[in-house]
Design brief:
This protein has 218 residues and is α/β, with parallel strands linked by helices. The chain is built from 6 helices and 10 strands. It is globular and about 50 Å long.
């Protein structure tokens, strides 16, 4: 099997579907798997999700995009933002998964380093990968953080990027459970934590695999 370019949408603390999809797509060492951000918050076990992603680095070429939820977590852990800002958006569930009892050092250094190493954008051939959105006429290495991590497709439906590449992104939950294919962009956030699916896609072929939050294949 030739090397594949795969992407997985917003996991949001749901390890079971991530584990199912990783097994179902039969990852190889030559495959590139791009995770589109928002690994944590809202779901039942964010700590287990990060552990799974760390393990996946041994099975494929793993690329992890920084989501807005990772940004919130990092800013709070660094003392750069007040904790309630994060807690209101799912941080309570994340800290519970780490056994929080009042001390933020419950988050292992390995997990902090993993999240800190997440990237803003990944470019590959005819595709680029970001968490949320992009500015069509800005170079991919000069995109504003607000667009990359926070701007939903409901707020701004982007034009084709000047590079001519197809965007692969998450963040904007598709409550239908279906991938949103806008032609020049594809949104893979299919509302896993809220009763939808976690979606994996081979971006070159368009093949899709989905599992619900309990890990059952669609």
């Amino acid at each position: 099997m030739p090397p594949r370019l795969l992407a997985i949408g917003d996991v949001h603390g749901c390890p079971a579907p991530l584990e199912t999809l990783a097994e179902t797509v039969r990852l190889s060492a030559d495959d590139t798997l791009v995770m589109l951000g928002d690994y944590i918050d809202r779901g039942p076990d964010s700590r287990a999700v990060i552990d799974l992603l760390i393990d996946l680095r041994e099975r494929c070429r793993l690329v992890t995009i920084m989501g807005n939820h990772e940004e919130m977590m990092l800013r709070v852990l660094r003392g750069q933002a007040p904790a309630p800002w994060w807690l209101r958006h799912g941080g309570v569930e994340t800290l519970d998964s780490y056994g929080f009892t009042g001390d933020l050092t419950c988050v292992p250094r390995e997990h902090f380093d993993f999240i800190e190493a997440c990237v803003d954008c990944y470019e590959a051939e005819d595709f680029f990968f970001v968490h949320a959105n992009y500015v069509a006429d800005e170079a991919l290495d000069a995109q504003p953080a607000e667009a990359l991590r926070w701007q939903s497709l409901g707020e701004h439906l982007p034009a084709p990027h000047a590079s001519g590449r197809t965007a692969v992104l998450g963040h904007s939950a598709q409550r239908s459970g279906e991938v949103l294919d806008g032609g020049h962009f594809r949104c893979l956030d299919t509302f896993c934590f809220g009763g939808g699916w976690l979606t994996a896609m081979d971006v070159r072929t368009g093949e899709v695999w989905q599992a619900d939050r309990e890990g059952r294949l669609r």
